[in-house]
Amino acid sequence: MSFSFVKKYVLGTFLAMAFSGLCLSACTEPGENGSADSGNRIPAQDRAENNDPAEKHEEAQESEEASAGSEKADGYEEAQSPEKTSAAGDKADGSAASDSANRKNDSGRKSDKGKKHSKKKAESADKKASGKSNRKGTDIAEGTKVSDRSKISMATWNLENFFDTNDDYYKDEVLSERQYGDKLNRLGGVIKGINADIVGVQEIETQGCLEDLAERSGYPYIVFYPGNDKIRGINVGVMSKIPIRNYVSHAKDRFGSNGSRGAFSRDCLEVHFKHTSNFTLLVNHLKSKLGGEESDAKRFQQAQRVVEIAEGLQSLPVAICGDLNDEPDSKALKPLTTCPFLTDVLGHLPRERRLSFFSKRYKSALDYIFVNNRLKPAVVPGSARVYNTQEAGAASDHRPVRVDFDLSKIK
Q1: 106 — alpha (psi -120 to 50), left (phi > 0) or beta?
Q2: Would you call 245 exposed, middle or buried from its count of C-beta atoms within 10 A (0-12, 13-18, 19+)?
Q3: Residue 48 per-residue DSSP state
Q4: DSSP letter string over 216-278?
Q5: What pTM does this model have?
Q6: Is the dihedral of CA 271, 272, 273, 274 positive or negative?
Q7: Over the stretch 47-94, which tens digit does the pLDDT of each residue have?
Q8: Terminal Cα-to-Cα distance of the chain (whole angstroms)
Q9: Which of helix, strand or coil describes residue 188?
């Protein structure tokens, strides 16, 4: 082998190595410490926060389980209006039961008026309550006068699966835009016909759904707070023509005997109205009858807790409404039906006239309005009724219940 050949070979190898090194340096970004990062790099679009709904749901569940036994903080929740959202105070006058209620500072919900409303907890923190203590209650309907209307009416209605068009992680029905619009029109038409001043609703998925229904039905004030239903994502809420002073969510209440830790299946939503009478409403949707004796026991516990909350509010005129998922003579509802300071406004009606749930298999009386002794004198005789109309039947498997009050009768 000649010397000139070896010289050319070595020189060529050196130049090739040098060129390769320049390419490597040019194609490698520096790491955090300024040196080249030789590990597997994540593309910029993949470094964004993981927004997978299922993972967020698991995180939310873990967070809830971790905090289930923690001490609850005092503080009224923020009420929501289609027109205005503002912070709420800690307590309303006479609300002793609210000391044990769940009162998170983070209570806002974000909605999309395009009817694609997400239930993700990550989107539920756009508004925050102040958390400031105010024993007289902070005025949510800021700028409005206290209502002094003597005659008001209220209703309760299970809307039957009023879901939105968003395919989230719940086991719910995802409506098309057309189905959503049809459902909204049917529900709104019935509610307009009932024309109650205050309506407690059950089986509504999001605040956006409630806002749309309130706008369609002519209600300027609403209250919505996501409850405990982690399977179907159905909640309770309130629409009102009477200004709302503040409210409390009891979704985080834990109760029961013998070491059990019962909870509301959805919520017991305590709403205080900006009225001279201090009218107060508790909206409920108790455990369903699926599950036999175990479900009956849970429903009994929930009914007991509702009575305890109402007992702490006896200085106020209080109504309790909702789908209680059992018959008036059932053992599960005895805490309510036998309570000495509560009256079932439909209690005087024969069973045929108080049936409020209709399915292909059976009919049942599941929907109620109770009043406490303070509110009882204000019930207008003969006004309590179930709206078993064809229009209501086309909109839901439940029928609305309505009652009228003459609040001037309260002494």
Answers
A1: beta
A2: buried
A3: S
A4: HHT-SEEEE---S--SS--EEEEEESS-EEEEEE-TT--B-STT--B--SS-EEEEEESBTT-
A5: 0.71
A6: negative
A7: 233 333 333 333 333 333 333 333 332 333 334 444 433 333 333 343
A8: 120
A9: helix
CA distance 309 to 102: 12
What is the DSSP code string of 95-160? -GGGGGSB--S-------TTS-----GGGS-SS-------TT---SSTTPPPB--SEEEEEEEEEE
Model pLDDT for residues 327-342, shown as the tens digit of each residue? 999 999 999 999 999 9
- What is the maximal distance between C-alpha atoms in the chain? 121
Per the listing, tokens 């985080």 go with 252
Distance of alpha carbon 398 from alpha carbon 403, whole angstroms: 17
CA 30/CA 44 separation, integer angstroms: 15
| Assigned token pair, 372 | 């406490």
The answer to whether 366 and 336 have CB atoms below 8 angstroms apart is no
Structural domain boundaries in the chain: 55-59+72-409
CATH number of 55-59+72-409: 3.60.10.10
Evaluated on CA atoms 302, 303, 308, 314, the torsion sign reads positive
Question: Which residue carries 């068009």 as its tokens?
Answer: 165
Chain-centroid distance, C-alpha 22: 61
